[in-house]
Structure formats: C-alpha cells, structure tokens
Amino acid sequence: MGEDMTSVSDLLKHKGHTIVSITPSESLENAARLLTEKRIGAVVVLDRRGKLSGILSERDIVRAIADRGLTAALAMRVEDMMTKEVRTCQPSEPVKDLMKMMTLRRHRHVPVVDASGELVGVVSIGDAVKARLDEQASEVAVLRDLNLSHV
C-alpha cells in the first residue's frame, strides 16, 4: 500500500481534459475576462498551430498592472506577460511527484502533455492536493477496515 497509485492520468479522468486556451496576440483584458468567466487561475497559450507556447496566470496580470498601471496593462498582449518556458508533466507521472515539483518551483498550474508532446490537460495545485487527500482517505479507510476485521 505504500506505493502511490494516483497518476496524473487518474486525476484527469476525474477532473476532465478540458483545456482553456488563448492566443499570444490577445489582450490581457481578454485574458482576464476568460479567467473570470471560467473561474480558473491560469490559461494556456497556444500558437496558431495549436502548440503550447506559454501559460498566463492571474499573477502575471497583476504584475503587469503593478508595473504599467491598469489601462496600459490591460491593453498589453498575452505574449508580453506569459511564461514562455513552461514546465509540463506527463500523464504517467505520479501526483505525489507533480506536487513536489509544483511546490519546489512555485508553479500553481502545469500543462499535461502526452508522449508525442500533445497537450491533453492542465492540472492545478488544488487538483493535485485533492487527489492526494482522496488517496489518503482511501488508505485510511482500508486500514480502518483491516483493523476492525481483527477485533
């Protein structure tokens, strides 16, 4: 039982594979509206061919406002504030390892790519924490059942 059974693909089966994206040429104002409408903290940035070219988070938008002022920041393009070197994970990766990487690197959202590099989902730190808590609750239930069966 000590092995971590929950992989990123398991997490995506429960969460879903929905990917909310935006293009690099969109304005930060449009990105902020999209984040608000979808109630998410980050959006992946896809180029015209549908390939991952970055990720834009609420923090990126807040930083732009702090640096440039509200009006100028909201007129900026996504590509001017997005993180271009995006850390990704694969579906086979254990959620525990993903959480460690997210914590150490301070990433709150990580795109999931398959072996061929195709984007198949996005995982937030909240998704990862929920998956680990669910896994641990299941382990506790099994241990409790084992203990009760020996009474």
Automatic annotation (TrEMBL):
Species of the source: Skermanella aerolata
Assigned keywords, A-Z: CBS domain
Name of the protein in question: Inosine-5-monophosphate dehydrogenase
Domain of life: Bacteria
Taxonomic placement: Bacteria, Pseudomonadati, Pseudomonadota, Alphaproteobacteria, Rhodospirillales
Family annotation (InterPro entries): CBS_dom, CBS_dom_sf, CBSX3_CBS_dom, Diverse_CBS-Domain
PROSITE patterns listed in its UniProt record: CBS
Pfam families (alphabetical): CBS
Domain CBS: 5-74, 82-138
